[in-house]
Amino acid sequence: MSRNEILKKLKASRTRCVVYTRVMGYHRPIESFNIGKRGEHRERRPFTEYETDRA
What pLDDT, on a 0 to 100 scale, did the predictor assign at position 18? Predict the structure, then answer.
């Protein structure tokens, strides 16, 4: 069964996923962003923290 066939078969049981991001100290859903803020959010890179050899 192809991916599209599986998605069509399970379409009725799927739900919409709401994605939140932290903005200025509080969480907001991305769907409430205007077009400019959505573009900024798409360009963001995830933060990766590395260990240091501090003594």
Answer: 92
Q: Phi, psi (5° rounding) for residue 54?
A: -75, 140
User: Taking the complete model, does pTM exceed 0.70, yes or no?
Assistant: no
pLDDT at 30 over 80: yes
Rounded CA gap, 33 and 40, in Å?
10
* pLDDT beyond 80 at 4: yes
Spell out the domain ranges in the chain: 14-43
- Burial of 29 per CB tally in 10 Å (0-12, 13-18, 19+): exposed
Give the integer Cα–Cα distance in Å for 4 and 28: 32
Alpha helices in the chain (DSSP H): 3-9, 35-43
